[in-house]
Amino acid sequence: MRKLLSTCLVGFSLILAASQAFAAAPIKIGALFAVTGPASFLGEPERNTAVMVVDEINRAGGIHGQKIELITYDTGGDATKAVQLANKLIKNDHVVAIIGPSTTGDTMAVIPVVEKAQIPMISCAAGIKITDPVKKWVFKTAQNDSLAVARIFEELRKERKTKVAILTVSDSFGASGREQLKAQARRYGIDIVVDDTYGPKDTDMTAQLTKIRGSHAQAVICWGTNPGPAVVARNAKQLGLTIPVYMSHGVSSKKFIELAGDAAEGIRLPTGKVLVADLLPKSDKQKASLQAFIRDYKKHYRTEGDHFGGHAWDAMMLLKEAISRGATTPAAIRGQIEATRGFAGIGGVFTYSAKDHAGLNKDAFVLVEVRKKGWTLVK
């Protein structure tokens, strides 16, 4: 009886402690992710990860005794809807910061909203124009497409391949990638012999690839997000294209391998280190964060955490760090994010400044190759 009473008292004490811990008003964080629609392979793991991180923070007692309240909305990958929901988060929900959106197009549409309202936003999209030029209230965690281009071109130069065909999707992500591919080519001694595009909803790229096959291209670089690049991979295999195929970091998840099937074999792409975390040396600064993220995501969702979920992990952890340092207002949070130095996250080691709201360098990317429906590290 005494043991039972003691157990009950301990349980009551824990409940009381938890209620006291969250006696203060919660800190409201907004999230905009493309959970449904064509970009759901980005938004769903991002939403899942953000929920997971916030749950863990709150289970541990919140931040300085304050609960984090995450308010998430699904943009569906629609820029107009993203703007409406950003306004809702700011005017109705009174959030102090926003993470997301998932795509470059949604992010670019929302930027004027957060800049006018002076609410910090940490985008999970990759387009370089999100933070270049710097916008005072906007940061990002996805690696810049400029860094991804540089990683591919470095490999091509090493392999002495100088003639390249590019095939980019005709949306904001593809346009940004195409701009970087063309801008950096001369620096690496690359001659772009074919410059073609495809639509986000196209289901056959045979015509473009036939043109590439008839050119002097020594490699083809496809820039897009699923499902288009998987179609490109399958069409390339059907046509018997023998030159190396490179993809952008926009397909850095097993979803691409599932969609492309056997055609994914041998394809290379730049990616954050999360896909090959186990292959990294113990000395790698990111390894502990990467393994914790992978372990926690698998525990919560019974599947592996990926490159895209990692963008949301970094965004939430950056906010956690800012708030832990005493920042609770939008202005203070913005200032603390900008003051972040050497934060070892999933996407890389982040160092922001007044002149750099992307925070990463080319070391954030590794080059991987698809082998036997998995990833191998290209050294």
From TrEMBL:
SUPFAM superfamilies linked to this entry: Periplasmic binding protein-like I
UniProt keyword annotations, A-Z: Amino-acid transport, Signal, Transport
Superkingdom of the organism of origin: Bacteria
Protein name in UniProt: ABC transporter substrate-binding protein
InterPro entries listed in its UniProt record: BCAA_transport, Leu-bd, Leu_Ile_Val-bd, Peripla_BP_I
GO annotation terms (biological process): amino acid transport
Domain Leucine-binding protein: 26-373
One Pfam short name: Peripla_BP_6
Family, similarity comment: Belongs to the leucine-binding protein family.
Signal peptide extent: 1-23
CDD domains attached to this UniProt entry: PBP1_ABC_RPA1789-like
Keyword Oxidoreductase tagged: no
Keyword Signal assigned: yes
